[in-house]
Every structure is written in C-alpha cells, then in structure tokens.
Write a structure and sequence with these properties.
The complex is a heterodimer of chains A (about 650) and B (about 260). Chain A has helices at about 15-25, 30-35, 45-55, 95-105, 110-130, 165-180, 245-255, 320, 330-345, 360-365, 370-385, 440-460, 475-495, 500-515, 520-540, 555-575, 600-605, and strands at about 35-40, 60-65, 80-85, 155-160, 185-190, 190-200, 200-210, 215-220, 225, 260, 265-270, 295-300, 315, 355-360, 395-405, 410, 420-425, 605-610, 620-625. With about 650 residues, chain A is an alpha+beta fold. Chain A has a 5-stranded parallel beta sheet, sandwiched between helices. In chain A, strands 11-15-14-12-13 form a 5-stranded antiparallel beta sheet. In chain A, strand 7 and strand 8 form a beta hairpin. In chain A, helix 3 packs parallel to helix 6 (about 165-180) and helix 5 (about 110-130) crosses helix 12 (about 440-460). Chain A is globular, with a radius of gyration of 24 Å. The two termini of chain A are about 40 Å apart. Chain B starts with 7 loop residues before the first strand and ends with a helix. Chain B is of the alpha+beta class and about 260 residues long. Chain B folds into 2 domains: about 10-120, Ubiquitin-like (UB roll) (Roll), CATH 3.10.20.30; about 125-255, Fumarate Reductase Iron-sulfur Protein, Chain B, domain 2, CATH 1.10.1060. In chain B, helix 3 packs antiparallel against helix 5 (about 185-195). Classes of the chains: A alpha+beta (about 650), B alpha+beta (about 260). At the A-B interface, helix 3, helix 5, helix 6, helix 11 and helix 12 of A face helix 1, helix 2 and helix 3 of B.
Chain lengths: ~650, ~260
C-alpha cells in the first residue's frame, strides 16, 4: 500500500489557503493562452461553467456532450436549490458555518481545505448567477429569498421555484453560447467520449464517437477536463438521466487515474417509490418539501388503512421523534436509513410496503393550500402525473432512491488527478462531499469548480506544458482509436440472446441488494462473485443490433453497461475495505446500539483511492490521510 | 379512462421508421402487448423495443434522457399532437393510463424543415442552439459580478422572468405550428432577459440578432395560431410573443433613430 498521493494542499491557516494559492499559482499570459487547447467532456454546471470561463480567458476550448444540446446535461434536473454563505437572512450563517456543516454533513470524510474553499467562493457563485440573469426567487422587497435544506439550521439555500438546476444551467449555458458565438469554444453535441489518450504519462487527448454518423475520431489537447457527472446508474434505477454513465471516468481510471471512495453513494430519502419491474427510472421529490412536509409511518406493522383513517396517535413521525433538533430536515443519509428501518419493521406503506408518507396536511392547514401550491406546485403536479394521486388531499408516498455519487476520480487541490493533465470537476471528482452530500451543495460545487476553481488552478499545469503538444496522428492516438473500434466491433459481433437493458437491470438489482442502503461483508463478497459472472455472460450473450457507422442507441448503451459491469466491482471492493459506517456507506456490522452509523476514525480517516492494475485483478488501494485542523473530528449527531 | 395501476392493456402502434436523413421513411406497425397502466409512454416504447430486440429487429430510436420532464430531450408527435394528449406534459411524463385498451397510437417525429430527421423519431434541433448563440445570454465575465442583492428586482418581474425562463427548448412549439415557427421559444428567451435589469444593456441587439438567426434557420413567422401555447409542456403563454413583437419594434425604431 504505497502512498503516492500528494493533494498539494497549500500551507497556511485554512482561511488563507485559497488566497495564498491563487497568488502562488502560475499565470499564463494572454498571448500564450491562445496557444493552449483544452478539452472538456461534459456540459453540465461544471463543464459549461469551465468551458465558458476558460474560453473567455482566451484559451481554445473544445467541449463535448452526449446530449443533443449542452443545455440538457443532467444538472438541469436539480430541483431544490444552491447553498451560499451570504447570510442575507441574518440568521447566523458564515463561511465558517457552511464549511462546518458540509464537513459534518459528509461525516468527516472530505478534505478540509477543499471544503473551506467551496464555502468561501459560494457567495461569488450567487453573484455570478444573478448577473447572468438567473431568476432566483425573491421577496416582495425585491431581494433574494432563501429556504432551508437538510443538515443546516440556517436558511442559506437560493432557489428558482422547483427548477433551480435548470436556471443555473441556463445561466452557464448562456455564457457558453456567447463563447461559442465568439469562436472561443467549439461545441460537439451528440458526441461521446470513449477513451482518454495518455502520451508520456500525460492526458493529452480523447477518442470520441460521433453518435449520428458513428465515426470514431481523436482530439488532442494540452489538458483534458472531465466534468462527466456521477455513476448512480450502476444501480440501473436512479434519479439520474438515462444517459448518465461512468464511461468517461472509468476509461480514465483504466488509463491510470485513481478512483476515490466509489462506495460513497447517496440514497435520497424522498423519491417516488418503484411501482413495477418495467420501470426505467426513479423520480426525486425535492428535499425542499421537507421544509413543510412531515414524514411518518404507521406505528403498527402491516397497517392496511388509508392514511386519513390512521389517527394522529397511531402515527410515528419518526424523524421528529429520533432527531428532535433537525426533525424532518435531518440529512439525506440519515433520513433514508430511517425510512429503510421503518420498512424493515413491516411498517412501510403502499402496494409494495416500500414507502413512507410525506404529509402536507399540517402545513396546508397552517399556511393554506395556495401558499403550498406557490412553493411546490410543480412538484405536486409531477407527483400527480406519475402516481395519479393528489398530494394536496392525501400524503405523498416516498422511498429512498440512488441519487448522487460522492465518490469519483481522485483530484488534488488543483482539481488535477494523479494522472497528469487530467482535471476532474463536479460530481465526477470525489473531493468535497465526503461520505454524504448535503442538499443544495451539488450545484454549489459544480459551479464553484467550473467558474472559480479550475480557471485559477489550470495554469499550474499548463505552465509546464508549453511546446509539448501531442500529435493526434501519433501512435498513442492510433492505438486508443483501434481499441475503441475493436471493442465496438466486438459488441456488435456477439448477437446473443439478451438485451443490454436485461444485463443492466440485473446488475442494478444486485448492486441495490448487496451494495445499496446497507452493506455487509457476506453480501459484498457475494456481489464480487456475481459481477464477474454477469460480465462474462454479457460478453457472450448480449444482443446489440445495428451497425457501427450509424445512429445506434443499443450500441451506445452497450458500451456504457460494459463499463458499469467492470466499475461495479471497484465499488464493492471499496465498500468491503471500509470496515466502518459513515454517511451514505452503512456497514451493518458497524452501528451503534440505536442503529446509527459508527465511524472508525483511527483506521479509516482516509480517502480510499483505487488504482487499476490489470483486468481480473483486484484494484490496488492508495490512501490519502484526512487531517482535521479547523473542524474537529466529532460524532455526527442531529439529535 | 383512468385505470388502476396494475391493469394491463394492448395497443396498436404506427411508428415512423427512417434509417437516416438520406433515406425516405415509412410507417411500420407494431403491437404493444401487456402494457401496465402505470408505465410511462417511453417505458411502453422500451417494452416494445425489448420485444423487437428479442426478434432481432432493430429497436425504434427515440430521444429521451431525464425522463422527468425537464431536460427537453424527449419529443414525439403522438396521435397528431407534439408530446401527446395531456396538457403541460412532456412525452416522458405521459402515462399509459391515459390511453384506452386497444387504441391505435400513431407516433411520428417532430416535423419541421429546420428539424431534419436523423433516425426514426430522432430529429436534429441544433437550430435552436444557434438561435441562443446569436444572443440568448447576458455578457458578464466570470468574477465581474456585483453583490447579488445590490439590484433589487420586484417580485412580479422576477416571477414573470421565471415564467419565460421555464422553457425547456424541446421544440414542440415548432412541431405544432403550421408555419414551423420557433417564435414561442424565441419570445421566451428574449422576454426572460428583457424583464430583468441585467438584460438591459444588450436588449436591442439581442432581439435583432436572435430573430435574424431564427429566420435564417428556416423557421416561419407567427400567424397567431396559438398551437404552440396549446402544446407547450412548460406552459409558456403565447402572450410572450406579443412581448417579442414589442421588443422587435422598439429595437427597429431605435436602430432607425441611431
């Protein structure tokens, strides 16, 4: 177990680190910026903000996305809001408090210096968004409104109805559009990255497939930036978009980038329950609903009565009971686990008994239906469309679902991977959320990384790369293209009996069962046996129809599922290795008497970064120890 | 028409199949069997596609991504209506409980000269991105912004800007319009910025440039059919087109005076 990981955390007190680092970072003079070409994969909040900002600074940028427009990246689906330490509510917020809440929310498994920086730049993100025309909710006096999110006792979340992600992405997309129009950014929609090209130990390009013509080609650059999102779809059913995949980050892993903390997956407590095996995705009901909705389940197991027939004294408002100071706004991992416990006790509701109630009756009687409609109307409408139930009249049924992945490629303070020249932003990296992300912090991190962090740190790498252009016709590119082509042809040549979705669904069920909300050693070992078998079957029996050089959605899916079938294993290895419970990673063997996660700081206060060492071999573990100087390690309690 | 969640139904589908942009397309007939009423429209297509794959027939290609009504990637003209029969609903949020057992369902791509078919039900909507590139933004350098609360915006104006900004750029307005006009989309983008103080410096040029691009892409003019408003999943009111016209006239006058 070597420790070759240097996070390059600047010296000095935590509140000075970022300032000092910016001052000490290398600058590239404007005339030289034109000479550097930056490849960005992904156009969500992180990718679009980075592409726009770097283009505006004078770099030549190429940006790639699999969607037909950069504005459709899955950041667009974020509902609830974005955190910032503005303290506009005068309720005691500060950079220090946002920092501490985020560290504590992440169960003391994130890197302090990164989190502090994020809290520091949070205010500037809101300024930037407002200037770009993001129509945040406002009060009657014309000033910005806020609401509360889980894991915080202050109101620091800015929002645009239930469509905050959409509006923030439109802001970043607008900036990107301007840079495209000005010729600084070249945009490649419907283009999927299938490999990273490494030349002399540096990430110098990518291989892509044009999803319309099916043609494979390479692009060389001075650095590669991955902002390709998370890997939640390894569970098949999740709140991610159908196209979200791990391919970009997984391919980088296979080329030498370490994958950090893949077992930290966030299961969101308030999603619409699964209704049948034909289901293709799960839909989130924003955490903001827990500002006014009360979560409960019947006290009696197997209670078949309608919710309105269950009298008040026979209801268990279990979050309020167990966590009196945070109540319904307990953080996501805790609220999810509590829902699972209730269902495990046979107190779940709905046809499948895998659900609990989120009840607005009290809020409606206190505030009136009109106010609730104003606050959450679009969410109630969406709930009605999907379930055919009216949540103004009867409580919503909710159940936890895979939502976000805190793990990702390992990066240093500059957001650069251990693979030189590869930068990783947003959900694709591991850095800021530890073992559990707080609500409304993903948008903050995505935009923070893209607008403010990378543009300041990228010079540190580029300054060392003057005159070191890679040749896109060189042998490394040729080899990577050939590998991609061979793989594509292999997939198309199998012509087996099962569809890609069959395999994906099977993998998802296995992962949910063995590596989902609760894990244990026996289950993880079982998963590590079953995944390779499933993968083997996939490569013998998958049926991918159509041709290589055409628009072929089965082929697109097949490539992604093939990568999930490998990636799933590292997730299980990581979950097996981490013999403690923290945040979203709950090992049944490690819990307190009242069922809370039991951390083991002596042995596991580190980032687990996994290195690919060859097919069929377990990945090799590298550790980055986590040191807590500004926030002291403490038992995480929301009671 | 409302069925219980577990009821299963059968449908006849007439689906537009087209190999690529160069080959002519045609309707093909399929039967969709044992479809749960609680399945979404796209899940119904998933089930049909699984059946096709099992028979070694190429699955029907259609655009989709978030499947929660916000990304704007899904499209489809269903029985003659973009996004199908339900008001304010994208195709991905349409559920089979709204279709009667035994019904024939005709599924076509969004059709417009500016939206060429790429394959089956997938069209190229990048013309809408190019309209955005012509001016759908506020030019503000990263880091150059003042404090977010330094410019108060009256709540009604902010709310109205948000109504306009809710457009998901799906292109249903174009598919529904007899003139294949993208003016509801354009009006939403122009109005969003025109309603905000931050949008003022570029207000004149923005509407002129975006409109010019709209026309160059081959979208038609608005003739007040209001079909766009009827099908818009984000409920963008056609009143914003009046706003667009006003913005345009003001910009032209300003240009003439200057």
């Amino acid at each position: 177990m070597t420790n070759g990981l240097d996070a390059h955390i600047p010296a000095g007190p935590i509140e000075k680190k970022w300032d000092l680092h910016k001052f000490e970072s290398k600058l590239i003079n404007p005339a030289n910026k034109r000479k550097f070409e930056i490849i960005i994969v992904g156009s969500g909040l992180a990718g679009a903000a980075a592409a726009a900002t770097l283009g505006e600074l004078g770099y030549r940028v190429k940006c790639f996305c699999y969607q037909d427009s950069p504005r459709r990246a899955h950041s667009i689906a974020a509902q609830g809001g974005i955190n910032a330490a503005k303290n506009y509510q005068n309720d005691g917020d500060s950079v220090q408090r946002l920092f501490y809440d985020t560290i504590k929310g992440g169960d003391f498994r994130s890197r302090e210096a990164n989190v502090y920086r994020l809290a520091e730049i949070s205010a500037a993100i809101i300024d930037q968004c407002v200037a770009a025309g993001v129509p945040f909710a406002r009060e009657y006096g014309g000033l910005l409104a806020n609401r509360s999110f889980g894991g915080a006792q202050v109101s620091r979340t800015f929002y645009a109805r239930g469509q905050t992600g959409q509006q923030l992405l439109l802001g970043a997309y607008g900036a990107l559009c301007k840079q495209i129009a000005d010729g600084n950014v070249q945009m490649f929609p419907r283009t999927e990255m299938l490999d990273v090209v490494v030349v002399d130990g540096h990430a110098k390009g990518i291989v892509v497939r044009d999803m319309v013509s099916g043609k494979i080609s390479s692009h060389a650059g001075d650095t590669v930036v991955l902002a390709s999102g998370g890997y939640g779809n390894v569970f098949y059913l999740s709140t991610n978009a159908k196209g979200c995949n791990v391919t970009a980050t997984y391919r980088a892993y296979k080329k030498g980038a370490f994958f950090a903390n893949p077992c930290y997956t966030q299961i969101h407590p308030t999603c619409i329950p699964v209704s049948g095996d034909y289901q293709s995705k799960l839909t989130l009901m924003s955490e903001s609903l827990r500002n006014d909705g009360r979560v409960w389940a019947p006290k009696k197991p197997h209670d078949q009565r309608l919710p309105k027939e269950i009298p008040e004294e026979e209801r268990d408002y279990y979050l309020e009971r167990k966590y009196p100071s945070f109540g319904n706004l307990a953080p996501r991992d805790i609220a999810s686990r509590a829902a699972k416990q209730v269902c495990d006790e046979g107190r779940g509701v709905g046809d499948t008994c895998l659900g609990v109630y989120l009840d607005f009756a009290e809020a409606i009687s206190r505030l009136g239906e009109k106010t609730i409609r104003e606050r959450y109307g679009n969410l109630f409408d969406m709930y009605h469309k999907i379930t055919n139930e009216d949540a103004y009249k009867t409580p919503m049924r909710i159940f936890p679902a895979v939502h976000y992945t805190m793990g990702g490629l390992w990066v240093d303070y500059n957001l650069m991977s251990n693979l030189s020249g590869l930068h990783v932003l947003g959900e694709a990296n591991f850095s800021d959320h530890g073992a559990n992300r707080l609500g409304a912090s993903a948008l903050m991190q995505g935009l923070g990384d893209g607008y403010f962090v990378l543009p300041n740190t990228i010079g540190n790498y580029l300054a060392t790369q003057a005159g070191k252009k890679a040749d896109p016709r060189g042998p490394e590119f040729k080899k990577a293209e050939e590998d991609v082509l061979n793989r594509t042809r292999r997939l198309l040549g199998i012509r087996g009996k099962k569809s890609v979705d069959d395999f994906h669904r099977q993998l998802g069920l296995l992962m949910w069962d063995k590596c989902g909300m609760a894990r244990n050693e026996a289950g993880l070992r079982e998963a590590l046996k079953q995944i390779p078998a499933l993968r083997e079957e996939f490569w013998e029996n998958v049926n991918v129809l159509g041709e290589e050089e055409e628009l072929n959605q089965s082929l697109e899916k097949a490539g992604r599922v093939a990568d999930f079938l490998e990636f799933a294993e590292i997730t299980c290895y990581d979950a097996l290795n981490r013999r403690e419970s923290c945040g979203g990673h709950f090992r049944e063997e490690f819990q307190t008497a009242d069922g809370e996660a039991k951390r083991n700081d002596e042995e596991y206060a580190y980032v687990a970064a996994w290195e690919y060492v060859g097919d069929g071999r377990p990945p090799q573990l590298h550790k980055e120890p986590l040191e807590f100087e500004a926030a002291h390690l403490a038992t995480r309690s929301y009671k | 028409m409302i069925a219980s969640g577990s009821a299963k139904r059968n449908y006849k589908l007439r689906v537009w199949r087209q190999k690529n942009g160069e080959t002519p397309g045609r309707f093909a007939e399929y039967s969709a069997r044992e479809i749960p009423a609680d399945a979404s429209f796209l899940e119904m297509l998933d089930i049909v596609n699984e059946g096709l794959i099992a028979r070694n027939e190429e699955p029907i290609a259609f655009d989709h991504d978030c499947r929660e009504g916000i990304c704007g990637m899904c499209s489809l003209v269903i029985n003659g209506t973009p996004h199908g029969p339900n008001r304010a609903t994208t195709t991905c949020q349409l559920y089979m409980r709204h279709f009667a057992d035994g019904q024939t369902i005709v599924i076509e791509p969004f059709r417009a000269g500016a939206f060429p078919v790429l394959r089956d039900l997938i069209v190229n909507r990048s013309a809408l991105d190019r309209i955005q590139q012509a001016g759908g933004f506020i030019s503000v350098r990263t880091g150059a912004a003042q404090d977010a609360n330094s410019i108060p915006i009256a709540k009604p104006a902010a709310d109205k800007a948000m109504d306009a900004a809710a457009c998901i750029q799906c292109g249903a307005c174009v598919a529904a319009c007899p003139n294949a006009s993208a003016m509801l989309f354009l009006a939403a983008r122009v109005s969003h910025f025109a309603l905000l103080p931050q949008g003022q410096p570029e207000r004149t040029q923005r509407v002129l440039n975006m409109l010019e691009q709209h026309d160059a892409e081959g979208f038609g003019n608005c003739r007040n059919h209001y079909e766009c408003e009827a099908v818009c999943p984000a409920e963008i009111p056609a009143l914003f087109i009046t706003n667009l016209n006003r913005e345009y006239v003001m910009a032209e006058v300003k240009r003439a005076v200057e």
